[in-house]
Amino acid sequence: MSPESRTDWHHRPVLVTGATGLLGGWLVGALLARGAHVVCLVRDLVPQSRLVSEGLTDSVVVCHGDVGDQHLLERVLGEHEIHTVFHLAAQTLVPVANRNPVSTFEANVAGTWSVLEATRRSPLVAQIVLASSDKAYGDQPVMPYSEDMPLQGRTPYDVSKSCADLIAQAYAHTYGTPVCITRCGNFFGGGDLNFNRLVPGTIRDLMSGRRPVIRSDGSLVRDYIYVEEGAEAYVRTAEALWDDPSLAGRAYNFSMDHPLNVLEMVDRIRDVVGSDLEPDVRNEPIDEIRFQHLDSSRSRDELGWKPQIELDEGLRRTVAWYRSHLQAG
Fold first, then answer.
1. Which of the following is catalytic: 137, 157, 234, 252?
2. What is the pTM of this model?
3. DSSP state string for 237-270
């Protein structure tokens, strides 16, 4: 597919689950900018989310309910004549998953099969983009991770993403369900309200004059992706599936191809914020994969996608959002 897709989003009925999350708010904005008719499935109203606080709810249809309610999903898909589905809804926090594995599996695994079964019963749905994660790969002996590697999560969150990913592949293989799977690095950007995550937590601490806390020894390596780039990646994936339905069942990695360890990322944030506060490295035992790095060449070659915003520019935009948000709060 060429970088310039033939897809016309104008008035296209689109469903976004997880619209109050970090990526969801930016994806809804990207779809509205293209003229799509956006329907959002929302379980809990989050006033501080970008979807609500920046007035995007004034331009979308909001349906209240749980992603595990298949009957509700079928009603929403049918009554709103949905053609494209972006399934982002999930429990995304690793510590929460470790404390509450059952609710995480219910949201991430059962929620996924509910969405896919509802779409299978809804003949107008022509594209589904399902959010997996780089965590679905588990701990791999070879870097970077390619899409053909086995999915072998071991901890509750990682397992939930491995399962959801495989369920999507099963629906594509068995029923011809038109679904593509995205596996992204760690999202960052304005609107992330989970301050126990590295980027927003570090920004808030530095802006408050506190040393940012690092629970690990700071050596964990991750891929990162700025959230506006992530929204464009999801749109591009849907467009590719529209142009070529044979892509159903394909998975795509997305990252900025710039892996950093925790200390390096904190130093980047300190530079952007303009702070000389040293991090408080706790060196606590952490049950997390030490090194993760994605190969995004398939998404570049098959989808024509590549990041347009450099890491430091993404951090500048993120810091600017939090300066406004935290001051307003």
1. 157
2. 0.95
3. HHHHHHH-GGGTT-EEEE--S--EEHHHHHHHHH
